[in-house]
Amino acid sequence: MIQLILAAPASGSGKTMVTCALLRALQKRGFDPCAFKCGPDYIDPMFHRKILGVEGCNLDLFLSDPTAVRALYAGYCRRHDAAVCEGVMGYYDGLGGGTDRASTWDAADTLKLPVILVLRPRGAGLTLAALVQGLNRFRMPSHLTGILLNDCAPAQAESLAPVLERETGLPVLGCLPHLPQAVVASRHLGLYTADEITDMNRRLDVLAAALEEHADLPRLLELCDRPAPRLRGEFGNRSRSVQLESGGRLTPSAAGMRSRKSPGVRIAVARDEAFCFVYDETLRTLEAAGAELVPFSPVGDTALPQKIGGLYLPGGYPELYGEKLAENERMKRAVREAVRSGMPTVAECGGFLYLCQSLECETGTVRPMAGVLPGLGSRRDRLVRFGYAEMTAEEDSLLFRAGETVPVHEFHYWDCTENGTSFTMRKPVTGRTWREGFASPSLYAAFPHLYFAGHPELARRFVQAAREVRR
Asked: Is residue 426 classed as helix, strand or coil in its secondary structure?
């Protein structure tokens, strides 16, 4: 089975487009690949899944433990003959940038995968060899297996290749040239999403053709051929039990897997252009816990799905669609009545902002939202409370028991005048603490994104509460 991670010395090296080019090239060669993203990013996996139609998930060694990451990887690899993992940030950049925990290297070491280093020369020559040497010796084993030059003229790649190979001992597998017609623009939270780019398939075909022409794909495939990972329980049909460590930390148990065969309870999941940040493996974890997930659109629908017992409002870009959300009075009223009546509800980041009184749109116009929570959402000039954190519950609620701690992630430019006080947050590197979030027996609403695949007990509690409501 072809298995590899694409990594880079730093963000901005073009890993996403190289990953997409390789996935499309594998498809054209007759492979059936799956794809993975290291870290908590939502946008890059959208390109993998929605444009290329490949199965895949996130691999995050902060939000879940190594056992869970291995199980996720093996479960998604099943029935595929190739797996391409896209790295995050610089190769060794983990928590806070000062540790290799949860870095791309950490993922490669956990899964024992070969790594192809994506290098963008940008005016460097022999210095690139020094950079690669440092990366290759910084941690042992480095898992570095080859080099692919990105955004690099073929003539430049031809002259650089023998130098890099002589100095580093790593094979240079060719290049992906600069292709202006395939560039994808960015905005405040990263690349534009796959659904927003109407000609993305054409762009990926251009990238794949260029990779076929200028890279040695047969050599790459030879270097990255590995036995398929062993499957110790199919993810998506089974869920792990959890236990509490001393100190109340919620953690996956080593007790194994067990089936969930009770009848499904319908949970409405917001899935449209405004609410598109959701982990595929979170949805699978909810299904494994007994949920029947029913998508709906707060932008376009006028009513919640019928016969539901729960409501899930994930993150996304409500600020870009504030006018449509505000004008949809029937949906706002339906959501407001559902939450106030005690329907079990999980609202993360953008979903949390939707439940607030109002939201400042990207244009600066303030629009009324569902009005369940007291705060007013508005834009800030920088990322707010950005990154990983540990979240400890102050009291029992829908998803948590008092004292339990789970890892979470925040990524938003918008903030709120009333962020709540139901959880104590702590940065794992600096130790900085603060309070935020709203929680009750029927509600979780806060900026932090939860990762149910790392802590499936949260999903089971959500589903159980929804089932009791339906009864």
From this structure: strand
Angle, alpha carbons 85-91-97 (nearest 5°): 120
DSSP structure string for 211-245: HHHHB-HHHHHHHTB-PPPPPSS-BTTEEEEEEEP
How far is the C-alpha of 215 from the C-alpha of 195, rounded, in Å?
A: 29
CA-based nearest residue to 92, from 82, 102, 83: 102
Return the residue matching tokens 């792990």: 240
Residue 386 — very low, low, confident or very high, per pLDDT cuts 50/70/90?
A: confident
Kindly list the strands in the beta sheet with 433-436, ordered across the sheet, starting from the edge strand earlier in the chain.
Answer: 405-410, 387-393, 423-426, 433-436
73 with 59: CB under 8 angstroms? yes
Residue-by-residue DSSP string for 26-55: HHHTT--EEEEEESS-SHHHHIIIIIT---
Answer yes or no: is pLDDT of 236 > 60.
no
Answer with the residue of higher pLDDT: 462 or 233. 462
Hunting for tokens 């948590």 — which residue is that? 400
3-class SS at 367? strand
pLDDT band (50, 70, 90) for residue 22: very high
- Angstrom distance (rounded) from CA 213 to CA 105: 29
Tokens of 183: 């560039």
Element (H, E) at 359: strand 358-360
Measure the CA–CA gap between 100 and 366, rounded to whole angstroms.
41
Number of neighbours of residue 161 by Cβ within 10 angstroms: 17
Q: Report d(CA 230, CA 272) in Å as an integer.
A: 36
Q: How far apart are CA 174 and CA 92, in angstroms?
A: 24
Round to whole Å and give the CA distance between 241 and 364. Answer: 46
Q: What is the pLDDT of residue 234?
A: 44
Domains of the chain: 2-223 (3.40.50.300), 238-470 (3.40.50.880)
Q: What is the pLDDT of residue 188?
A: 47
Within 271-328, residue ranges assigned H as helices are 280-288, 322-327
Q: Single out the residue of 93, 96, 120 nearest to residue 38, CA to CA.
A: 93
φ, ψ of residue 57 to 5 degrees: the values are: -155, 180
Instruction: Decide: 275 and 430 in contact? Cβ < 8 Å.
Output: no
Tell me: cis bond preceding 177? Omega within 30 of 0 counts.
Answer: no
- Specify the amino acid at residue 378: S
Quote the CA–CA distance of 70 and 86 in Å, as a whole number. Answer: 16
CB 436 within 8 A of CB 416: no
Q: Are 340 and 355 in contact (CB under 8 A)?
A: no
List residues with catalytic annotation: 349
